[in-house]
Amino acid sequence: MPKTSKKSQIVRSPRVRIEFAVLITLRCNFRCSFCIVKDLLEDTELGRGPKDMDYSDFKVLINKLAKRKEKNVCMGGGEPFLHSDAALMASYAAQKLGKTHASITTNMSLFPTDPDAAKKLLKSLGEARLNMSIDREHLRHDKSLPKRIKTAIDSAESYDDLKVIAVARNSYEARHPFPKSVSRLIPMELKQNMDLRFDYYSKMHEHPKTEDLSITFLPNGRVFAILIGASPNIKAMIGDWRKDPLEKFMEWRSQAQYFGLTRFN
């Protein structure tokens, strides 16, 4: 994973990782200190408008991304499973984008503990991967998460259908992102492919920073470019996906990937 300057003022890496984040809902049952879109989830001017993305609008957006053969498209929120059509959306995205290019990220709080219900939910996602966002702050929010995590792991047909995402706030958490009671539930295959991210709101600079650019699509049509890995993270509104051509947003990817990003307001 590429490293950045401690100052995070200018990024000069040709290896910036790009992802497309489709926020299907701005509703969330957690309030995490490290959330990169927490200002969008609140009732501010940035996130004002519908809290849930309409399924018909979602299909239009996914079809546009699929036509361009875009990869690394993640559905999230908020907590995506608060949206009644979350599984349907994930399945549609995987069908259009391909198995390895669509995923849905959840805090696992709504994942069923019943094995039969868990298998049914995983099957309803089609070929979309389930990203389990697990970290110490989430575990403090909901004491039932270890059981839900274990049920998901036991119910999955393949470890390829799952991914673990964790957030670390310091060097200790970078080495031990979860308590031992949870760590022993997670197979080594998942730990080896874990996406460990760092709390960009932290003032600590003792750990390497990620350099991810997220092109983020909101239910209200707005699109943000979010540079993940800066402290604080850098966010800019770059258009409206319902009105502007998709090519407009791809220019931000090119700038990040080939020319480097400078701080924008």
Intertermini distance? 26 Å
- Gross morphology: globular
- CATH homologous superfamily annotation: Aldolase class I
* Count of domain modules: 1
SSE pattern: EEHHEHEHEHHEHHHEEEEHE
Average pLDDT, to the nearest integer?
81
Strand order of the largest sheet: 7-6-5-4-3-2-8-9-10
pLDDT under 50 segments (min length 5)? 1-15, 203-210, 257-265
Tell me the fraction of residues in β-strands, as a range.
Answer: 15-25%
Number of strands: 11
**What summary fits the major beta sheet?**
9 strands, mixed
Computed over alpha carbons, the radius of gyration is: 18 Å
CATH class: Alpha Beta
How many distinct helices?
A: 10
CATH topology: TIM Barrel
Percent range of helical residues: 25-40%
CATH architecture: Alpha-Beta Barrel
Label the structural class: alpha/beta
Folded structure, characterized:
The protein has 10 helices and 11 strands. The chain is of the alpha/beta class and 265 residues long. It has a single domain, classed as Aldolase class I (TIM Barrel), CATH 3.20.20.70. The strands form 2 sheets. Strands 7-6-5-4-3-2-8-9-10 form a 9-stranded mixed β-sheet. It has a two-stranded antiparallel ribbon with strand order 1-11. The chain is globular. The model is unreliable at 1-15, 203-210 and 257-265 (pLDDT under 50).
Secondary-structure map with pairings?
Layout: E1 10-11, E2 17-23, H1 38-41, H2 55-67, E3 73-76, H3 86-97, E4 102-106, H4 115-124, E5 129-133, H5 136-141, H6 145-155, E6 162-168, H7 171-175, H8 180-183, H9 188-192, E7 195-198, E8 212-217, E9 222-228, E10 234-240, H10 247-259, E11 261-262
